[in-house]
Amino acid sequence: MTEPNLQEIHDFLIGLAQKAGVMITSANPSTVDTKVNSSDLVTETDKAVEDMVSNSLKSAYPDYLFLGEETSTAASRLTLSPTFIVDPIDGTTNFVHTFPYVSISLGFAHKLKPLVGVVYNPFTQKLYTAIHGKGAFLTSAKIPTSFPYPSTSSSPEHQKVQGAEYITRSLPLHSPAAPLNGLRKALVAVEWGNERSGNNWDVKTGTFSALAGEKGAMVHSLRSLGSAALNMCGVAAGELDAYWEGGCWPWDVAAGWVIVEEAGGLVVGGNKGEWEGKVDARRYLVVRGGEGGREFVEEFWSQLAGEVRY
Fold first, then answer.
1. For the chain, which has fewer Cβ within 10 Å, the N-terminal or C-terminal residue?
2. Which of 69, 241, 261, 262 does the annotation list as catalytic?
3. In the annotation, is 129 catalytic?
């Protein structure tokens, strides 16, 4: 098998994100089912988008594997083979409630390493992209319109699409990135997840309290916005200082992983001492670029109320 053409894959995934964006923004999620419990939602649009993406990828890249949220099981594992890792709608609960923090997350990994990432929020018309070794970028409309789509051109220049002017900027949005000055001056993203009892729940809520409380780190604030992929892109952009999560899956983080790393950030394990983060570990600490990153990780780990286990 020849080595993957990462630029070609990148451009192909952008095209799929555009198609998925039309499906997502034009849908009315009237059929809502649950998976693990009442907080773990899935709609007919999740399934339809994954079917479209899966069929397109299998047709264009028949030798590559596919790992998607709606067709994979808890036993599915990322392997050394070239693999597309897809979340058709990251932020399904937001989608159901019409809260526009929703994205399609399209990642590509080889030998267990994320190499291409495309994350697109069709409601805000923000497209985050990265190729390993080539930087990370945000393409967004200067003046949003109803259904504009960034072109698949790899040139990071101004684009005009359907009357909307687009601009592509490198990430982080402000360079050089400001130094990380500890948790007390940090804005941190966290998520509640769908596991609402037991050890992991206790560790999460205890950690949230330690991060936010006056007797703990007392961060500037915590944000829980409901999309792992967009949280990671917020870190890559420098809008969030960090994101800590336990319980999500490879399709939630694979695309954002390469975007963060290409923007100069760190992705490590969610438990103390896990400097070598793994895509399928289901626990992650993501820290933006800037001087003091490793010290920030150490300080964050010191606030954990235990270990999350998956």
1. N
2. 69
3. no
Position of tokens 């526009």? 100
DSSP state of 3: P
Catalytic residue check, 89? yes
Q: Supply the DSSP symbol for 267.
A: E
- Of 50, 191, 195, 252, the active-site residue reads 252
Cα torsion 23, 26, 31, 32 to 10°: value is 80
Choose, from 50, 70, 90, 261, the residue flagged as catalytic: 90
How many Å is the Cα radius of gyration of the chain? 18
Question: Is the entire prediction scored with pTM above 0.85?
Answer: yes
252 is catalytic: yes
Active site annotation includes 3? no
